[in-house]
């Protein structure tokens, strides 16, 4: 079984889905991360309850809001 940070390392510069508390989601290119699961996404789309809400050039997501990250 792979460790979470190893999976994130392999997903660098690829599209990922970041599911957050409150039924929010970001989809974008993983530009960076740290051991606390804080992530930086570029060219990100923000979704609320499955509906596209906004587009962002860069988004920083705090790790304590993350439910999962899917490569």
Notes on the structure:
The protein is mainly beta and 71 residues long. The chain has one domain: SH3 type barrels (Roll), CATH 2.30.30. It has one helix and five strands; from the N terminus they run αβββββ. A five-stranded antiparallel beta sheet has the order 4-3-2-1-5, with no helix packed on it. A hairpin with a 2-residue loop joins strand 3 (39-48) and strand 4. The longest helix is centred in the N-terminal third of the chain and has 8 residues, at 4-11. The model has no long low-confidence stretch (mean pLDDT 94).
Topology overview:
Layout: H1 4-11, E1 15-20, E2 24-33, E3 39-48, E4 51-61, E5 66-70
Antiparallel strand pairs: 1-2, 1-5, 2-3, 3-4
């Amino acid at each position: 079984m792979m460790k979470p940070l190893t999976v994130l390392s392999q997903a660098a510069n690829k599209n990922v889905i970041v599911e957050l508390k409150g039924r929010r989601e970001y989809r974008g290119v993983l530009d960076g991360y740290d051991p606390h699961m804080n992530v930086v996404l570029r060219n990100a789309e923000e979704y609320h309850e499955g509906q596209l809400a906004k587009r962002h050039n860069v988004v920083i997501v705090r790790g304590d809001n993350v439910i999962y990250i899917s490569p």
